[in-house]
Amino acid sequence: MLNDIYNKRIIELAGNIPRLGRLDHPDATATAHSKLCGSTVKVDLKMDGPRVTDFAHDVKACALGQASSSIMARHVVGSTAAELRDLRDTVRRMLKENGAPPEGKWADIALLEPVRDYKARHASTMLTFDAVVDAIGQIEAKSEKEAAAVAQG
Questions:
Q1: 56, β-bridge pairs
Q2: How far apart are CA 102 and CA 85, in angstroms?
Q3: CA–CA separation, 98 and 117 (whole Å)
Q4: Which of 4, 62, 87, 113 has the smallest CB count inside 10 Å?
Q5: Which residue from 89, 80, 136 is spatially nearest to 109, judged by alpha carbons?
Q6: Mean pLDDT by groups of 10 residues along the chain of 153 residues
Q7: What is the Cα–Cα distance from 84 to 91, expressed in whole angstroms?
């Protein structure tokens, strides 16, 4: 039943999303959109090397998209690019392949585990993870291009 996925803790997370808004000068901005439900998450990211130093997001999503965005916003600063890519893959496996939820600081994502039974809700749940990984890729590509330009002198 849908009541399983819209539990009290999910509603609390959705109603209390940290870091809402936009950054003045992000290193990258990425948007993820679910055609199925119309949810959209736009993230701004700043990084120093492989580590996230600042984050903001604009969340126009259902309660599940809001809850996953809320969890992301609570823990993303200080996380590394590799950790965030692994996180996205872990959440995708959790939803699509009955994989285990992440542990440690990301353990709250286990609250989203019941979503695996509702394929139509997977995309909105994944929005924040996909947008963050997209932004990281943009930053890394920019850094590689700048390094190549310096090397060519």
A1: 44
A2: 12
A3: 10
A4: 4
A5: 89
A6: 75 96 98 94 97 98 96 98 98 97 96 92 96 98 88 81
A7: 10
